[in-house]
Amino acid sequence: MIRRATLSLNEATGEKKVAIDLLIQQYLIFLQKVINTLWNHKLFFGTFVPKKWYKEIKSSLTERYKQCAAKQALAIVKSQRKREKKTKPIIHNASIELDSRFVTIEQGKNSFDLWIKLAVLGGEPIYIPAKWHYHFNKFFNNSDWTPKKSCRLRRTDKGLFLDIFFEKEAEQIKEAGGAVGLDLGFRKLAVLSDGQIVGKELNKEEITRLYNRKNSHLVISELINRELKKIDFNNIKTLVVEDLKNVKKGKGRKAKPGKRFSRYANRLLAHWAYHRALTKLEMLCEENRVQIAGVNPGGTSKACNKCGSKGIRRDERFVCPTCGNKDDADHNAACNIRDRFISQGVYGPLPENHLDVPSG
Ligand SMILES: [Zn+2]
Q1: How many domains does the chain have?
Q2: What is the CA(231)–ligand 1 centre distance, in A?
Q3: Ligand 1 centre from 183 Cα, in Å?
Q4: Mean pLDDT of 137-152
Q5: Which of 70, 110, 173, 246 has its CA 20 to 30 A from that of 315?
Q6: CB atoms inside a 10 Å sphere around CB 297
């Protein structure tokens, strides 16, 4: 498994910040030009870019940096192709991928805890002080985790940051525990078939206010991370979630599959927030040695978990006119999610694409 820790570079002096900015600026210009070349010549293969494709591009970057940017350009066009997008990728984020030839982290002796050594445009390294923090310490100087060779230098409206990646071998899925279904929503972020509920109950006004905030993405992401961490995985062997990865946002030519998403849209859990929550759940499962499985989402909120008939959903309550079952609507859905997994009988390690379900 791979985890990210971010260091702020905002303690750097003004002069150093200018040097970093200049590097990022020149790098991005070069990166976009290489992307244009690769795209125009349909070069979407290989693992590195032969120099002949970029040697004509004028830039003040060193040869090493050019090589590095060319590699990033190739990765970007390849990923664009993979997603079957027809348009040339345009760089929007100031984010550059570097490896240990350009960046190293050293432990400091004085007031600042760490020094980041970064090669800038002239080729000479500069030293930038950075502070330790809890999340970084969890991985750094921890023999379980190995730092990856590549890192990411970013500029945002909050300043300059360095993302460092740490790697650890995934542990075996545990033997104890059962299958538990999980229903994601927003009023209650997650309801589990074993009765656990995490995420504050929000009303419609609160949700609307949350989404209208200027930094709503950050606030909602934080909320998702903080709340999902509260799930107790002790008695869970397999966590079953609805797989919405293949469900498109309901617009354009393929609007039909989007219908399935309407349930989430109604509950104001935006498409991106759902994916954020799912990614966080995948990480938590990995850390707790729990298997994660995805099932087809169709109809899990409508069927009665006791008898399978179509029930009636009234706000947060579910009532079955056939057998008289009454339940919390999200809990009923979570039980259906769990049972769909059990009836499919796919216990044991799932293939890598286990979250892909056939559409329709
Ligand atoms: Zn029923």
Answers
A1: 2
A2: 28
A3: 19
A4: 88
A5: 246
A6: 22
Does one domain contain both 143 and 228?
Answer: no
Distance (angstroms) between ligand 1 centre and the Cα of 310 equals 7
Q: Report the greatest alpha carbon distance in the chain.
A: 76
Q: Is the pLDDT of residue 351 over 70?
A: no
- pLDDT at 331 (0 to 100): 94
Residues 8 and 147 in one domain: yes
Q: What's the 330 CA to ligand 1 centre distance in angstroms?
A: 15
Does one domain contain both 162 and 188?
Answer: no
Mapped onto helix, strand or coil, the DSSP state of residue 91 is coil
Task: Measure the CA–CA gap between 162 and 7, rounded to whole angstroms.
Answer: 5
One domain, residues 235 and 331: yes
**Cα 191 to ligand 1 centre (Å):** 20
**Domain contains 77:** yes
* Residue 57 pLDDT: 94
Domain of 293, in residue numbers? 178-344
Q: What is the 180 CA–ligand 1 centroid distance (Å)?
A: 20
Q: How far is the CA of 303 from the centre of ligand 1 (A)?
A: 8
Query: Cα of 75 to ligand 1 centre, how many Å?
Result: 51
Query: Is the Cβ–Cβ distance between 332 and 348 less than 8 Å?
Result: no
- Ligand 1 centroid – CA 242 distance (Å): 21
Class of residue 59 by CB neighbours under 10 A (exposed 0-12, middle 13-18, buried 19+): middle
**Are residues 285 and 259 part of one domain?**
yes
Is position 350 within any domain?
A: no
Same domain, 133 and 6: yes
Ligand 1 centroid to Cα of residue 308, in Å, is 6
Residue 303 DSSP one-character state: B
Q: Is residue 201 part of a domain?
A: yes
CA of 281 to the centre of ligand 1 (A): 30
The CATH number assigned to the domain holding 308 equals 3.30.420
- pLDDT at 212 exceeding the cut of 70: yes
**For residue range 81-116, what is the model confidence (pLDDT) as tens digits?**
887 778 899 998 899 999 888 999 888 776 668 899
On whether residue 123 sits in a domain, the answer given is yes
Predicted TM-score (pTM) of the model is 0.70
CA of 326 from ligand 1 middle (Å) equals 8
